[in-house]
Design brief:
The chain is an alpha+beta fold and 199 residues long. The protein is built from nine helices and five strands, in the order E-H-H-H-H-H-H-H-E-E-E-E-H-H. It has one domain.
């Protein structure tokens, strides 16, 4: 993934002269400093001080998980709207073929990377190679709001970038796969994705 400039600016913090941290705060700071120095992998608690970084991290993990066939992890990184649309699409397709299955069964299957989930994502990967986004595209941050964000992704052979929609749900950034590519039908979904990559 080739990350370029992040649009937007950070405001300058305002310091307070002559102020000092309360004793409890000092102790807590020293405690975490000790952890970071002497315990491998330990660090300060994650915060939203770098929302753009968190947005990029979540979206990158989604495409990596697809590449590695970790469909359960990929599913957990999708937005609720993407979940609902995919589940409804699978349910309708099942009914058309005469397969009796409930919405709850489909939800459980995708949540646990079952047979339906595996078939769905493997069919998706037959058409889409995650490396085309991860390794062959330029990523730029677009607009970042409190509950939504955008990532501008441009494939090296394309002049038509796609704006990947992200949403913050329960404190975590989720990938709006359906919100980004969906045009009403699942085949249009994949076609639009490939149009972007083909240029």
């Amino acid at each position: 993934m080739m990350r370029h400039s992040i649009k937007g600016s950070k405001g300058q913090g305002s310091g307070v002269r002559g102020s000092c941290l309360p004793l409890d705060a000092v102790s807590l700071t020293l405690f975490f400093l000790f952890l970071s120095l002497f315990i491998p992998g330990a660090a300060f608690p994650e915060t939203d001080s770098d929302p753009a970084g968190l947005v990029l991290d979540s979206s990158e993990k989604f495409f990596i998980s697809l590449k590695e066939n970790d469909f359960k992890f990929a599913w957990n990184l999708l937005s609720s709207e993407s979940h609902e649309t995919i589940i409804t699409d699978v349910l309708n397709a099942s009914r058309k073929t005469g397969i009796e299955i409930s919405r709850e069964e489909i939800i459980r299957d995708f949540s646990n990377s079952g047979i339906i989930s595996g078939n769905y994502w493997k069919s998706f990967l037959d058409t889409f190679n995650p490396d085309m986004v991860l390794r062959e595209s330029r990523w730029e941050m677009g607009l970042v709001k409190k509950q939504s964000a955008e990532i501008i992704i441009t494939h090296k052979k394309s002049e038509n970038p796609v704006v990947l929609k992200m949403s913050k749900e329960n404190g975590e950034w989720k990938v709006g796969l359906v919100e980004t590519f969906w045009t009403g039908r699942s085949d249009s979904f994949l076609r639009r994705l490939m149009d972007f990559l083909a240029g």
